[in-house]
């Protein structure tokens, strides 16, 4: 539910883009800056929240994160100008990134390595369910309670979810070895983490790949409305399809990864193989503007979503394979901040580029990012290839 709300609340603005054009006089350039108002604090607080999770644990930190971003969503619904909406989005951006470092720590705490990929794959539909249900739900809320209710009602629900998390996160199991239980629970200093070359490799990969996912989150609904001529209600019927398809693909890949890891295959090599295969399909995105119908546009967007989701959740698994639990949330925060920085730069540029050159220039750049990251990982595979091998079943 936490992941669902995280994606639902951030998607509300993109789904209401056409409505807000009329209500607040918003242009594509204004929209780019609203994305920037969300992304700038999102980047900074990704790092901060990761350290907070490693220091204070998931129970307190995640309850606070969910409560604050839910209040921010309510504030967005109460805004009367672009500036007030931007202020609400800034608060949303400050609180939302804390969910993923916390979830990273939760997964490493509650699941052993041979079951971790499928657990993460279940998180995919739980989080992307927010993206799946957002178009029809937001369209329905806006139709019955105006666009303001589409912000305020989910925000109010989020406050109850924060309280439920506080009650639920208690007494986790202990899967660590006896030797690991004697290690200190406090996170290592940031300077020690940053001395690790593997950290910089994963940061570079995340900076290259995350912009594609952020583009899909923020620009897909607008593209379907403005270029394919869909109304808000029609958008609600089809915009969930790419996220649904991607979630199913991630679950299948998660089961496959656990199958191979559980039979003694090296976890890191399993993750990297998964990345390489997915990256081969990324160039299909350049076909978007040539698609002859809505059906084919949705097919291309679904392929792009599959690639993005496999890489997004797979990198979290890679962090769990390579780094200790005491630094897991900090690593997730660093990776999220760097990825969001790439997403911010791209999304701020997209509005003016689309207005001047059209979408083809944007899709052409996006098509090469995952293959580029795959080459980078392949050339440096020995840096990551040190995770312990799971014992094969007898």
Instruction: Profile the largest sheet.
Output: none
Radius of gyration: 20 Å
Reading the helices and strands in chain order gives: HHHHHHHHHHHHHHHHH
**Estimated helix fraction:** over 70%
Estimated share of beta-strand residues = under 5%
CATH architecture: Up-down Bundle
CATH topology: Growth Hormone, Chain: A
- The CATH class turns out to be Mainly Alpha
Mean pLDDT: 81
Principal-axes shape call? globular
Structural class: mainly alpha
Number of domains: 1
Q: Would you identify the regions where 5 or more consecutive residues have pLDDT less than 50?
A: 177-184, 387-394
The CATH superfamily title: MFS general substrate transporter like domains
Helix count from the secondary structure assignment: 17
> How would you classify the quaternary structure?
single chain
Number of E-state strands:
0
Instruction: For the record, give the distance between the C-alpha atoms at the N and C termini, rounded to a whole number.
Output: 37 Å
